[in-house]
Every structure is written in structure tokens, then in C-alpha cells.
Amino acid sequence: MPHKQYSKGVVGIVSKSGTLSYEAVGSTTKAGLGQSLVVGMGGDMMPGTTLLDGLRLFFDHEETKGIIVIGEIGGEAELRAAEAIKIYRRSTANPKPIIAMVAGRTAPQGRTMGHAGALLSPRDVSADTKAKALRDSGAVVVPHPGVMGDRMKELLHL
């Protein structure tokens, strides 16, 4: 990871994509927000840490004021994250803003994209369906990581 992009700050980032996590890091650093923690579990077929594990970490993390969730094609982790976001937003008086993105919206079915977990098989949920679930949960879905920092700054009213 390009370490010079990181800066201490207030945004928690959890991502299935290493590359997109440091794109989000660059965007939040450029916006002057920095990062409280960055959790990258990759998109392997059998991860040790899940997207949901990383997301839940930020709900009660005092230094984290806003959360970024980056998913991708393959599996259903984003649907579990969307359900957790929905429950969190319903059960918390002042929920933290959450930005989400799902990579791979134009990926061809059956082709592995980068690593074993980034594979859109016929039985998988589409990236568009995952993005809709995240949007319906209350997350702000963005088209690419370059806008995450500025959008989070708006949501945090800074």
C-alpha cells in the first residue's frame, strides 16, 4: 500500500479490495479527513475476517466519525453488511454516515477479476443488486472511490 497517502483522522474504511481501499485512503486524505482505521480483508473465497466484521468494528469505535464500505462482485458479504447497516441505523440515535461502493458492475459473468473471490458466477448476486441493498439500508452509494472523501466531508458537515 502506498503509505504516504495515509493520515490520522476520522474515517473508518473496510474493503474487499486492497487497491480500492487505498484509493479511498487517498480520497479521504485529500479531503482533510484522514483515517481512523483501515481494514482490508481482500475478497478471497474464504476470508478470515469478513466485510461484516470490519464494518461492525466501526459502529462503536469512538475515533471513527464516518464509515466507508467497499464491496465487489462475488459472494454475498455486501448483503450481510447492508442488513447490519439497516439495524445499526434503526437502533442508534445518531448513526455515523456510511458511504458504500460495489466494484465490478460491468464484470462479465464467469470471469475471475483479480483474485479468486472476485468472480461473478450465475448464482451470485449482481453488483447492482448489492449496491441497491446498501442504498436501501441508508448508506450513500457512490460510483467510484475518488468522490468518497468530498462526499464524506459533506455528510460530516465539515
In CATH terms, the superfamily is Succinyl-CoA synthetase domains
Low-pLDDT residue spans = none
Largest beta sheet: strand ordering:
2-1-3-4-5
Total individual domains: 1
CATH topology: Rossmann fold
What is shown here, in short?
Helix content is 35%, strand content 18%. With 158 residues, the chain is an alpha/beta fold. It has a single domain (3-155), classed as Succinyl-CoA synthetase domains (Rossmann fold, 3-Layer(aba) Sandwich).
Structure, described:
With 158 residues, the protein is of the alpha/beta class. The chain has one domain (3-155): 3-Layer(aba) Sandwich (Rossmann fold). The protein is built from 5 helices and 5 strands. The chain has a 5-stranded parallel beta sheet, sandwiched between helices. α1 links the parallel β1 (8-15) and β2 (35-40). α1 (18-30) crosses α5, α2 (51-59) packs parallel to α3 (77-91) and α3 runs parallel beside α4 (127-136). The longest helix is centred in the middle third of the chain and has 15 residues, at 77-91. The chain is globular and about 40 Å long. One of its GO terms (molecular function) is nucleotide binding. Keywords: Nucleotide-binding. InterPro entries: Cit_synth/succinyl-CoA_lig_AS, Citrt_syn/SCS-alpha_CS, SUCC_ACL_C, Succinyl-CoA_synth-like.
